[in-house]
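To the team - flavin-adenine dinucleotide complex, inputs and output below.
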Amino acid sequence: MNILVCIKQVPDSNKVEVDPVTGVLKRNGVESKMNPYDLYALETALRIKEQKGGSIHVLTMGPGQAAGIIREAYAMGADQGVLISDRKFGGADVLATSYTISQGIKMAGEFDLILCGKQTTDGDTAQVGPEVAEWLNIPSVSNVSNILEIGDRDITVEMDMTHELEITKVQFPCLLAVDKDIFMPRLPSYVKKLETKDREITVITLADLEDQDERHYGLNGSPTQVERIFPPEVNARRELWNGNGMELTEQLFQKLKDLKFA
Amino acid sequence: MAKLVVNQALVGDIKQLISICPFNAMEDRNGELVINAACKVCKLCVKKGPKGAVEYMEEEVKTIDKSQWKGIAVYVDHIDGVIHPVTYELIGKARELALKINHPVYAIMMGSEISAQCQELLHYNVDKVFAYDKKQLDRFKIEPYTAVFEDFVQKIKPTAILMGATPVGRQLAPRLAARVGTGLTADCTILDINENTDLVQIRPAFGGNIMAQILTPNHRPQMATVRYKVMDAPERNTDKSGEIIQCEIAADKLQSKIQVLDIIAKEKEQFIEASEVLVVAGRGIRKEEDLNLVTELADLLGGQIACTRPIMEAGWLEAKRQVGLSGRTVRPKLIITVGVSGSVQFAAGMNNSEQIIAINKDENAPIFKVAHYGLVGDLYEIVPELINKIKLSKAV
Ligand SMILES: Cc1cc2nc3c(=O)[nH]c(=O)nc-3n(C[C@H](O)[C@H](O)[C@H](O)COP(=O)(O)OP(=O)(O)OC[C@H]3O[C@@H](n4cnc5c(N)ncnc54)[C@H](O)[C@@H]3O)c2cc1C
Ligand SMILES: Nc1ncnc2c1ncn2[C@@H]1O[C@H](COP(=O)(O)O)[C@@H](O)[C@H]1O
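Output:
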């Protein structure tokens, strides 16, 4: 079984502020880490490999320093790492990101199974996975909360639909976006870290891709444009209500209706 | 084509310029300023750096004819024919947007034996319901659903498509967006529309620390997902309006490599952290059996009961229902505390909740510093009466 896991490097914290006067983003401390949701995808891959054998590629699109999370994945047990990196990929929205990743996957090899995390903590869209699957023209299932059976030609999974669980069987090749908590991610192993410290990381740039048309990548390949950013309204209002029991109850009931809870 | 160009001669203090970039995308390479792959083209270096040091060059982009795209379409979200209520909220929003640009409102529904559902949609002031009623569409499977949606987009050419950010919508929307090569904005909290039919999409970014306003200026359709209970649901009209259009699609487009084996109803979620609504019992509750009141209110609001430490220590509820420093940290959409003083240790576990309502008879209780709405009154007068009111309104 050939498995590829999409992982992303994200900022360690979401503590950003917008300068109210200039509208400029203030970002303090740019420490990075692996998107926590992607640890679950990688763990899923490792468990499947333990059961079925095969190899695990991890792939990330990002700046050169994103190689750090590939090293981390090596220390958890991934076999090969691919970094898709090019200045021309900068400013990509979901469409351009997923297209770039799908192009990179085609260069990286043939895979039975592609795994993604539920979402990223910075982009936070949960859309990249399904769009990658669309570009690759393979079936996809999101919200995968359990793997029930791994056959030779298909995989049976549990999809969490909030109020119900759907049991679906999907043919390979396919893409699964797995939920948090599907399996407890293991810690990176120090021994593996030493063993893999010289292992290569394949770097893919625009010049390596099948489609080299710059218009399909980065800002140019992105249909959506961020027009402005601004601080959210904070719910700082406090109200204290006095009155008799009947009045207070009626006021509360109306409030619950306004807030769409009753 | 758009790109950033560095004029080395105008860079000046290279460190100064590098420090402007919030994404660490500029480096000093042997005295030359280079932009690396971390660049998000936010253009801060252009605006804040020395004049002309970094320039943004844009080339003419091919523009599209926006007048070719008409109507605001809402995806009718359902599982086994049960329509998700976010659908009606989006129909309401679509009508509001459509009025501003004088466009029609469409609903698109795909499924099997869905004529009753389509009839029901006509009570919500849509102009047209496009129905793809096929045996093969009985259950959500990504490939046939995407193929049907693509068929709809090509034939009807809506300017915008709104979808619920549900488990189905969150999978189908991105597949469709990539299929038709357009933008998609997730989890919008505010939607508006410009005269030129550009959809103004506002969504939280960076974990809600900032808001981003997003446009899709040169692609159609424009696509957005919205979570349940963000927009207002319209009233159901007693009369019907609009028409149902039965749509055909070639059978070969309905094939799938996915097989739905079973759908199992989930047991009610038991973790208070996962609940969107919590009603918290504090020591203002006099006897154990009075907890029934709190449970009943929580049930009626679709939530769960939680408690303060003394209630847990009394053995009235399990430890996993305790909120606070030594209990669980919760962040529900709504939390109602009844008979809770609001100690620091308790508040630490819940003060990030979206809406906080407190009932306490002591006007000076610290909980009122935390609550958005504080009711100074006796819980034994308020809670039973509130339960009655909610029950009555549900019976109507
Ligand atoms: C290290 C440490 C950790 C702790 N961790 C936690 C924790 O995780 N969670 C936690 O909850 N506590 C914790 N505590 C305990 C905390 O300090 C408080 O003692 C506790 O939260 C108080 O619970 P309460 O609000 O239910 O009771 P009380 O403080 O007794 O408050 C009861 C309130 O009910 C009101 N009331 C009474 N009758 C009525 C009525 N009929 N109608 C309306 N209002 C009425 C009263 O005015 C009063 O304000 C911790 C304490 C320590 C020292
Ligand atoms: N730049 C990236 N490189 C690799 N994988 C990514 C990238 N962005 C997103 N993904 C994958 O897509 C998933 C969903 O991301 P998002 O749509 O940003 O919430 C993540 O959990 C990753 O598995």
